[in-house]
């Protein structure tokens, strides 16, 4: 890409091996940095693009946070990620570095598509339950006040049961 870019990696652990990989990949110090902290909100606010290349992921809280921050996201389609992020992100297959390279270059060089992806993330995030409503639901479960509401099954001529696919929050999947 002809654009100036900087890769910032967030997380904990020994950064020496990642620094070595960055050096071997030809990244210089001005293009790469590794940081760790508990407050990631400022990093989300400063980011132009969020990328997660996990090869396995149950839910992906960092992915969820990035979507809720309205970031354009590129995620690997593994584990529970597609269910959690739905159509708010761009998916890539795991371990396909050539695909990652193409998708990164596309979004780095295409401001309009990056903004469109960001808008998709913001729109999707608005439909998620609030932290307060999730906490209330958990509290109700622990207090024994949680009631599962069952929807009546549609009446089919053959009287067959009809299943409805729902996500973890009870929203019907399309």
Q: Report the average pLDDT across residues.
A: 81
User: Which structural class fits the helix and strand makeup?
Assistant: alpha/beta
| Number of DSSP strand runs | 5
Question: How many H/I helices?
Answer: 7
Major beta sheet, strand line-up: 3-4-5
Beta-strand content: 5-15%
Q: Which stretches of 5+ consecutive residues score pLDDT under 50?
A: 157-170
- End-to-end separation in angstroms reads 37 Å
Would you spell out the secondary-structure blueprint of this structure?
Layout: E1 7-10, H1 16-24, E2 32-35, H2 41-46, E3 50-52, H3 61-68, E4 73-76, H4 81-85, E5 90-92, H5 97-109, H6 111-126, H7 131-142
Parallel strand pairs: 1-2, 3-4, 4-5
Helix pairs in contact: 3-6
Task: Report on this structure.
Residues 157-170 have low confidence and may be disordered. The chain has a three-stranded parallel beta sheet, with helices on both faces. 40% of the residues lie in helices and 10% in strands. Helix 3 (61-68) packs across helix 6 (111-126). The longest helix is centred in the last third of the chain and has 16 residues, at 111-126. With 174 residues, it is α/β, with parallel strands linked by helices.
């Amino acid at each position: 890409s002809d654009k100036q870019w900087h890769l910032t990696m967030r997380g904990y652990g020994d950064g020496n091996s990642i620094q070595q990989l960055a050096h071997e990949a030809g990244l210089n110090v001005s293009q790469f940095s590794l940081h760790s902290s508990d407050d990631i909100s400022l990093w989300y606010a400063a980011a132009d693009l969020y990328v997660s290349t996990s090869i396995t992921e149950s839910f992906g809280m960092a992915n969820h946070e990035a979507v809720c921050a309205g970031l354009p996201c590129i995620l690997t389609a593994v584990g529970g990620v597609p269910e959690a992020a739905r159509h708010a992100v761009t998916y890539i297959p795991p371990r396909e570095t050539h695909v990652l390279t193409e998708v990164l270059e596309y979004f780095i060089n295409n401001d309009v598509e990056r903004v469109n992806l960001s808008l998709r993330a913001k729109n999707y995030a608005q439909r998620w339950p609030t932290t307060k409503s999730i906490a209330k639901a958990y509290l109700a479960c622990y207090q024994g006040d949680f009631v599962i509401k069952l929807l009546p099954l549609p009446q089919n001529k053959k009287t067959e049961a009809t299943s409805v696919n729902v996500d973890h929050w009870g929203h019907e999947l399309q």
